[in-house]
Amino acid sequence: MSKNPDFKIPLDPERYELTAAPTYHFEVDRRDFFKFLGAGILIVCVLKSAHAAQESGTAKHSSDESIPEEIGAWLHIGENGTVTVYTGKVEVGQNIRTSLSQAVAEELHLPTGKVQIVMGDTQLTPFDMGTFGSRTTPTMNPQLRKAASAARDLLLGLAASRWQIDRTRLLATDGMITDPETKRSIEYGTLIRGQQLTQTISEQAPLIPASQWTVQGQSLPKVDGRDFVTGKHRYPSDQKLPDMLYGRILRPASFGAILASVDTREAEQIPGVTVVHDGNFVGVAAPSEEIASRAIATIRADWKAEPQPSNKELFEYLKKNAVEGKSSTGDGSRYETGAVDQALAAADHRLQQTYTVSYIAHAPLEPRAALAQWSGNNLTVWTGTQRPFGVRSELVQAFRIPEESVRILMPDTGSAYGGKHTGETAIEAARLAKAAGRPVKLVWTREEEFTWAYFRPAGVIEVTGGVRQDGTILAWEFHNYNSGAAGIRTYYEIENQRIEFHPTRSPLRQGSYRALAATANHFARESHMDEMAHLLNMDFRRKNLKNDRLRAVFEAAAKKFGWGRTKAVGQGFGMGGGFEKAGNIATFAEVAVDQKSREVKVVRVVTAFECGAIVNPDNLRNQIEGSNIMGLGGALFEAIEFENGHVLNGRFSSYRVPRFRDVPVLETVLLDRKDIPSAGAGECPMVGLAPAIGNAIFDATGVRLRSLPMVPNGLGQIAS
Amino acid sequence: MAKVTKLNVNGIARTIDADANINLLSVLREQLDLTGSKYGCGEGQCGACTILIDGNPRRSCITPVSAVGEKKITTIEGLARGDRLHPLQEAFLEEAAMQCAYCTSGMIMTAVSLLQANPNPSQADISHSMEGNICRCGTHPRIVAAIQKAARALKQSHT
Lengths: 720, 159
Known about the structure:
The structure holds 2 protein chains of 2 kinds. Chain A is built from 18 helices and 29 strands. By secondary structure, chain A is of the alpha+beta class.
């Protein structure tokens, strides 16, 4: 990345990644650690880089006896040889439990099965801002490798002094230290029996280079996979406690509605039901989900609401409600170089177009769920969240209790996609549990998940490009209203640029979503590139693309796709790609448009992806395939319909998500750059798909689609 | 209200105490602690709650518990024989046909009935039979591959 300074990863998370880190108070005495972990070796990772320190909150000074506060993770080896890693990152299906096990096993030279990972337990793991932004692989993976490498070093030292020999002749292999000369060996667990050793390591510790990896770089299957195919794994919504009650919440009649009056008398008469009315909050706890639902249904409430816009006037609303003067070059939402207006005036061709994207829902198959238990003033909550520490802060604020008395546990969860950053389910369950005096589990219904979570921001994007006759792009002006600044900068070489993100008022609650605004911004940019190419009748991408890594993925995908071959009637080919979250993507799509029904079918998608050194090739393929399939929904047919404070299609029967029949043939080319640090891959592979499909539809029909979703009802009504 | 007090689940007669109109999914999860069947939509649209009733796939979230009677219920927990996984469970692992795996139970149960009815399904047959099951992580091609693999394994075990 050093070649092109423009491709820095922004230090700021996307604005929609929500809220700053809470004040960080973690202080554990080293001796306490061994009390709860047992004897052995403890390795603590201290963060030095700005990135990692930011993810773990503000660094503070610490006394000698306490664990330093700016830690990212710790690793413990017990007397039985079990290695346990503690990280605030969480597992939502991206399979980092697996890839992080590989990281530890690689450096410690032991079987991956010997590595346990405790994730997202606020009592046992160091603070972590959250699992988002494709940050686990670039930040947590190297930290754990450094911790494991330091542990290996300690073990070698212990064996050398035990045997009174030079440590350089010793080897660490398969969970043992071996002396090849005398052929004696000793297991890690035996070696550390009775020890209480701590070591703090810094970010500078040396690591095994990717070219010599033996565990990383392999397709290790999902850790604990057997528990998932047998139904044994307990997701947040599967959690249970003795005496547990089931919660249900009375939802407002529309967004933002205020409770004017409520009659809960009938619900209170149902045996075993606790009713809570606290301000705008009305909920029940009951011995079963069915009774809870029945109790909620008996409650009569009047709500006061203001009129609200609908999706029909959404884009005018967003343009009209831009918050002027809010963007600046300092926060990455405004970028300007050269003299755009003059360059546009001097261009041989100018093209101005507007692109739009709708609100869409994450629709994680497991809805939000929380089980809350009070013990005096201490609160424990099991919940599915990408931000366990953020949820802890929300509970601290909601119940005015100290941070130390709240513990969040995050069982491996039924997906999130950026949709589980907030803690309302935990708060609701905890409020009910407090009133009932018993543990309460609350699992949102699908309708609640579609309505009361948050959405991927809708947006309006205006692009103007100016090109010289020879295909040189002279000027580029790009304005994004509301959808976000992620991926807003262009990777094409253009001398004169004005790029700006405009925050606006949003009619719906909006937040993070896999790949954030990069999907919208790539759609607008890559569609516009295609439009200009057709205007000039010249494929001029290559001419204006200097970045080697990006060129490499475009070339690899083009080769696999067979770019340039002749097409049949109704067939169309298109491409899109770019750079996001330190990964490089090129996506080529083939579509077929039925000549009679005008139905659009995405037939084949070829993706080439490069994110540095590959940690787990098969899981990487899985993520890329998944990005493409999930991306099909937002590209083709997903959109939240809403009117006057109501979601109109908040069910799977009315909100169409990709299904088996929608899935094209997927072909994936992985470029493994062992010389480049590994980047995350959960998001970037998404961003090339929508423009590739849009450009392919144009190729097939001559119809240019500039709104996502592109064909919610087929191409039928759109004239060719 | 009429009560249902007995269910035959995974070959075992179980005692329950449920109003007749309650959905089978709630009873399995709440009363029998069989949480392998998942809630995904409550309207039979996503397939996460799929179980077998006398070998036929049913959406337990919209099946009243009173509709089961003496029929045999099979859930994901009842598929393996002791430590030996069902060929579909094996195939899902081998093909890495999951990410978050929340849909996996329903996918496997739907596929069990598919392979019983059609031991040699084409890709189109599989796609058609699995249409009612949602995977949000996008592992569909792997699920199709896993079902094909399991079909081959089942055929071999029968010859």
